[in-house]
Design a protein that fits this description.
The structure holds two protein chains of two kinds.
Chain A (H helix, E strand, L loop, with lengths): L4 E3 L2 E4 L5 E6 L6 E7 L6 E7 L2 E4 L8 E4 L6 E5 L8 E8 L3 H4 L3 E2 L3 E5 L1
Parallel strand pairs in A: 2-11
Antiparallel strand pairs in A: 1-3, 3-8, 4-5, 4-9, 5-6, 7-8, 9-10, 9-11
Chain B lengths: L2 E3 L4 E5 L4 E3 L2 E3 L5 E8 L6 E7 L7 E2 L2 E6 L4 E6 L8 E9 L6 E2 L3 E6 L1
Parallel strand pairs in B: 2-12
Antiparallel strand pairs in B: 1-4, 3-9, 5-6, 5-10, 7-8, 8-9, 10-11, 10-12
Amino acid sequence: GAGVSQTPSNKVTEKGKYVELRCDPISGHTALYWYRQSLGQGPEFLIYFQGTGAADDSGLPNDRFFAVRPEGSVSTLKIQRTERGDSAVYLCASSPLGGQNTGELFFGEGSRLTVL
Amino acid sequence: AQTVTQSQPEMSVQEAETVTLSCTYDTSESDYYLFWYKQPPSRQMILVIRQEAYKQQNATENRFSVNFQKAAKSFSLKISDSQLGDAAMYFCAYKRGATNKLIFGTGTLLAVQP
């Protein structure tokens, strides 16, 4: 498809389990972002990749959260020892090299994570 | 730290009428961008309109326009000739020029009445 693709669309897990969320950005977009959107809130920045490297991971809440983008395209957000407070919609976005300066991000439909 | 405030949790407008969504922000920076994003029930955020802080002219995109008051740090969105498809959550967002982070407000849920 032409847009940002995120899988799974919905994920229900138990407290303490490990979760992986995948993002496939628009082809050719070098910048990739993860945001977390809790119920009733706006999205909050988690991490930004430029190519394969994490250029800014200052939004990751703690060391249970980790993200990779090994080949500069698909990215995986990994959450260890999930907690109920991790329940949220995790949004991925991408932008072309110039787009990062104008702020226009192209978002996926998000992965809704529910931790029971 | 920069903040973005949307004081209207919900708004309603009649089809074909005009509605204005409010947003204020706080920053000490001079180089920044402001945005309005739309989030329909599908959850996919879509850029509606963008304003560069250095531009005095208010941005316009078809039925969507902004009222950018830099001194007052206000950035409202006006939707003219509202359509049923405009119903969605609208988020105001801020980006400092040198960074790649968007800071979002808490959103305004817009309902369009037929």
